[in-house]
Amino acid sequence: MPNVSTTQRGTPPLNWLRAFEAASRHLSFKRAAEELNVTPAAISQQVRQLEDYFGIRLFDRNPRALTLTGVGALALPLLAAGMSNILAACQAMQNAASKDYVVITAPPSFALKWLVPRLETFRNVHEKIEVRIDARDELTDFKNGWADIGIRYGTGKYTDLHVEPLFDDSYFPVCSPKLIDAHGKAFEPDDLQRYSLLHVDWPALQSAAPNWAMWLHAARTTHPDAHTGHRFTSEMMALDAAISGFGIALVSSRIAELDIEAGRVRRLFSDLAPLKSGFRYYLVRPNDTKPRDEVMQVCDWLRIESTT
C-alpha cells in the first residue's frame, strides 16, 4: 500500500482506535471486548481494519497471546493520552451543559473553619445559587470543568489562571481555656516548656511553612519539642486538639478566628507580634473562559467576606 499521510486521507474511525487502545492495554481481544461491550470478533475486525488502513502490523498474533509490535508499542501511549483527552473534553462539555451550581475548591482547614461557617450569609443574599464545596489539599485542575473557583494558599504563582489576593495571614499560639485556668498565672514564653507543642505537617509548603521553631526563635525562647512532638496532617486537627486541651497549637489567625470568638480557644502572648507566614490566600479561576454570572457573584461575595 502506498504511504499516504493521514492529513491527505483523513483520520481512521474512532472505533478502530478505541479497539486497538483497549486491546493493547489488556493484550486480549476478549477483555477489550468486555470493556467496550462488543464481541471479540468485532475488536479483532476493527484492529485488522486499522492495520490495513496504515499498511502495518500492530500485533503479533500468537496462539495463546497477543504481543505488540514495535510500532504498536510506540503508538499505544500516544493513543492512550489522546483517548484520555477526549474523555476529559467530553466530561468538560457535560459539566458545562448540566451545571446549575458553583463549585469552590479549598484546602480542608480553610473550608471547614473559614468558608463553611460563612455560607449562611451568602444564602441570605443569593438564595437561588447553589454552592458546592470541594475540600482538598491537592491543586485542582480546572480543565475538566468541574470546579469554578479555587482558594489557594501560597505565593500566588499559579500559571494559566486568573489570580487575585484575598488576604494575608499570621500565626500565633492558642490553647484551651481550661489549660490557661489550670496554669494559674499569666503565660510567659518560657512557660511553654511545661506543655506539649502541637505541630502541623504541611502537605505542600514544607520547610517554608510557619512552624514552632520559627515562632520560638522570634520569641527568643526554646522548647525541647521545637521540631518533634504530636503531629497532624491538617491545621484544623491541630486546632481541635488544642481545644480539647491536648496541648498548644501554632495556628493561622484566619483558621482560629471563629473558635477564638466563640471562646473555645484562646490566643496566648497577644502582646507579641504574630508570626508572618509570607504566604497569602488567593482566589483563582480559569482565565480562558468567561465566567457565568453565578460564579462572579460568588467571587464578589468572597471578596467582601475577606475584608470583614
From TrEMBL:
InterPro entries per the UniProt record, alphabetical: LysR-type_TF_proteobact-type (IPR058163), LysR_HTH_N (IPR000847), LysR_subst-bd (IPR005119), WH-like_DNA-bd_sf (IPR036388), WH_DNA-bd_sf (IPR036390)
**PANTHER family, A to Z:** GLYCINE CLEAVAGE SYSTEM TRANSCRIPTIONAL ACTIVATOR, HTH-TYPE TRANSCRIPTIONAL REGULATOR
Keyword Transcription regulation tagged:
yes
Species source reads Rhizobium gallicum
Q: Which domain of life is it from?
A: Bacteria
Keyword terms: DNA-binding, Plasmid, Transcription, Transcription regulation
Molecular function (GO) terms for this protein are: DNA-binding transcription factor activity; sequence-specific DNA binding
Q: Which family does it belong to?
A: Belongs to the LysR transcriptional regulatory family.
User: Is the keyword Transcription regulation assigned to this protein?
Assistant: yes
Instruction: Give any single GO term for biological process.
Output: DNA-templated transcription
Q: Which residues form the HTH lysR-type domain?
A: 12-69
Q: Which CDD domains match?
A: PBP2_GcdR_TrpI_HvrB_AmpR_like
Name of the featured protein: LysR family transcriptional regulator protein
